[in-house]
Amino acid sequence: MGKRRKARELALQLLYQLDLQEESSPEPHLDEFWMRHPVDAEVREFTESLIRGTKLHEAKIDEMISGYAQNWEIERMAVVDRNILRQGIFELLWAEEVPPKVAINEALEVAKKFSTQESSRFINGVLDRIHKELRPSD
Questions:
Q1: C-alpha–C-alpha distance, residues 79 and 65, integer Å
Q2: Is 116 helix (H, G, I), strand (E, B) or coil?
Q3: Looking at residue 44, which CATH number applies to its domain?
Q4: What is the per-residue pLDDT for 138?
Q5: CA 133 to CA 128: how far, in whole Å?
């Protein structure tokens, strides 16, 4: 597994935990998280950038999910799916070093590992609509 994929999976795990605990800041949890999941500096740095960026833009991201996830209330989504979408949207719109198609593909790969086949299709649909509407030239 590549370093960035590992970072995305770790980020999802902490985002999931923060969501369940209704925590807005990851900072109090990072030291303990890294004690349980020791990784090299490159993985840690990318993981933390995903977590912090996703949490920083979470309100805007959640508005987007509500608008693009037709017939779904964000509160009723599976916690793992909601956080895969949040992280995917963050990468798609704010992580400029990540090409949009890579952001979408990586979100789908993480969804295949941590969620269901049906969820992967749903996540793909939402991310694809956002990509086509908000980044059509990419």
A1: 13
A2: coil
A3: 1.10.940.10
A4: 66
A5: 9
Tokens 């933390």 correspond to what residue? Answer: 48
- The predicted structure's pLDDT at residue 134: 80
Count of CA atoms in the C-beta half-sphere (13 A) of 71: 2
- Residue 71: exposure state from Cβ atoms within 10 A (0-12, 13-18, ≥19): exposed
Nearest to 55 by CA among 20, 92, 18: 18
- Which pTM value belongs to this model? 0.94
Number of domains into which the chain is organized:
1
- Residues spanned by the domain of 79: 3-134
Q: Determine the pLDDT at residue 70.
A: 82
Q: Which residues does the chain have with pLDDT short of 50?
A: none
DSSP letter for 26, please. S
- Residue 99 DSSP SS3: coil
Over its C-alpha atoms, the chain yields an Rg (Å, rounded) of 14
pLDDT at 72: 86
Query: Can you read off the two tokens belonging to residue 46?
Result: 């990318």
